[in-house]
Amino acid sequence: MKLNIYELLKKQLKLETYVFIAILVIMAVIPPFIPSALIYLLGLTFLFIILATSWDLTTGYTGQLNLGHTVFVGIGAYTAALLQVPERLAGTPLEFIASMPKIPIWIDMLIGGILAGIFGLVIGIITLRLKGWYFALVTAILPLVFVEITLVFREVLGGEEGFSIGFENALAPTTIEKYYLSLILMAISVIILQIIINSKLGLRFMAIRDDIDLAESIGIDTTIYKVISFAISSFFAGVAGAAIVHYRLIACPDLFDIPLMLLIILSVVIGGQGTLIGPVIGAIIVYLLKHWWLKALVPMLTYLYIPINDDIILYMILIILAILFPEGIWMKLKDLYKSVIVTKIVAKRT
What we know:
Strand order of the largest sheet: 1-2
Largest sheet: 2 strands, antiparallel
Radius of gyration: 21 Å
Distance between the termini: 8 Å
Number of helices: 14
Structural class: mainly alpha
CATH class: Mainly Alpha
CATH topology: ABC transporter involved in vitamin B12 uptake, BtuC
Oligomer: single chain
């Protein structure tokens, strides 16, 4: 008995679409029922989802382990911040920007994404001929370099504390408006990434990931497509970084730093890399664990004289999840769904 594989795949694609739509609908209707502090945090979570899904494009779909994704987040963030506070560029070769008309927020976010994409393109051309851990090690060094740059040029970039861009440059005047704008930006970004993945370009990315030698043997220029994937990923990271600055109103080195990179990696691994919807789910779980749920748990443990902090608990939980769901939470759910669909198809044809 022959199963209709096309029908099965189509149902899986519909499942991912339905789950994503369900997430958007839930997030769109819950603000009236939750406190303002949680609304603020969820808005940042949406922007973090963009970081996770854009990283997954390079790592999950093209098979390139990029450990320097936060570099592009920081480039987008500091670009947007300096365009809104151009007086910090006084005495530098870019001083002329201060005399230019004020740039709208959405334009400077786009510029931040473009500059991050261009930098990703350059880095990709230089490094993506390397394979495996050689490429990973090179990218891992980049965030450390950029953190040091913020310290060396502290008059412009603010050093360890960063600098504020002012309330007048907020993503929106109120928390609820920022929340919905972040939700819209996340939805647009994920949809565009999904379109790319489902295109011929995405198929080439996945061919490189699955078997790079075979991809080369059928005429795919693997280096070019790896660079394209890297540049697209960098662009979305830059846009998200710029949006985060306008959301938080401060540009500081934590957007370049290693802890953010670890959260991105954990989100994708726990959610399920190479699935897109997996990183969305993983990002929500990891970001809320880190910044909300564990914040309430740690004081209780401290009161009981247990020497532990939220990072230790987070990594313990994620290790347990990784053991229980080695391919990610979404892959486990999809396998269960697939088995149900196959059972129904078999039942119909017997």
